[in-house]
């Protein structure tokens, strides 16, 4: 017959076959019921860490369309499953309750910042890009057809990976911009 002492790990360690407490003696009922977050995930998405230009591979574990865990991708030839402290904290970047979800905007000649929702801010940016493109458009220069705008330029950051830089180059070139550079090349 089991007593209350049998449920106490120290008693099991002292009286049982596991005196060092590295096996069954150290395990409680709660420990036996623990399941890792990765085991309960519906799907695993492979991605790249967003923090720097190294491009460490990550596995994002998703359950019910919510991120439950982010870990290093052992299949990544760059990081081989390892992440730096920033990469290890990526889940907090996405799921933190203190994450900023609005855009701060200060109107021209304004003195106060106001919060805008992302859709409104994106519409404002799109309108300004199109206006700058239209105002800076050149069909010809010195009799040579150029079809370009000098009203838009792009300077990519070091956190962008090759694919993102490729897409930015294609986007800005399609808009007629010629001043396209990446910080990694400067």
UniProtKB/TrEMBL annotation:
Which source organism?
Answer: Modestobacter roseus
Q: Which family does it belong to?
A: Belongs to the prokaryotic molybdopterin-containing oxidoreductase family.
Task: Give the primary localization class.
Answer: other
GO terms (BP aspect): anaerobic respiration
Protein name per the record: Formate dehydrogenase major subunit
Recorded GO molecular functions are: 4 iron, 4 sulfur cluster binding; electron transfer activity; molybdenum ion binding; oxidoreductase activity
InterPro entries xref list: Mopterin_OxRdtase_4Fe-4S_dom (IPR006963)
| Any one Gene Ontology cellular component term annotated for this protein | cell envelope
Q: Where in the cell is it found?
A: Cell envelope
Q: Which domain of life is it from?
A: Bacteria
Record-linked PANTHER family? FORMATE DEHYDROGENASE-O MAJOR SUBUNIT (PTHR43598:SF1), TUNGSTEN-CONTAINING FORMYLMETHANOFURAN DEHYDROGENASE 2 SUBUNIT B (PTHR43598)
């Amino acid at each position: 017959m089991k007593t209350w002492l049998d449920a106490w790990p120290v008693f099991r360690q002292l009286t049982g076959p596991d005196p060092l407490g590295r096996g069954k003696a150290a395990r409680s009922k709660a420990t036996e019921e623990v399941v890792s977050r990765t085991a309960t995930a519906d799907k695993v998405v492979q991605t790249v860490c967003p923090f720097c230009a190294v491009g460490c591979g990550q596995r994002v574990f998703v359950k019910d369309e919510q991120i439950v865990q982010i870990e290093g991708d052992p299949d990544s030839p760059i990081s081989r499953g390892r992440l730096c402290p920033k990469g290890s904290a990526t889940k907090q970047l996405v799921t933190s309750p203190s994450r900023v979800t609005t855009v701060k905007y200060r109107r021209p000649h304004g003195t106060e910042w106001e919060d805008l929702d992302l859709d409104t801010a994106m519409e404002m940016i799109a309108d300004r890009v199109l206006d700058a493109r239209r105002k800076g458009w050149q069909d010809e220069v010195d009799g040579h057809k150029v079809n370009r705008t000098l009203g838009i330029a792009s300077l990519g950051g070091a956190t962008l990976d090759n694919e993102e830089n490729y897409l930015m180059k294609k986007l800005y070139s399609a808009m007629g911009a010629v001043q396209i550079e990446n910080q990694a090349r400067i």
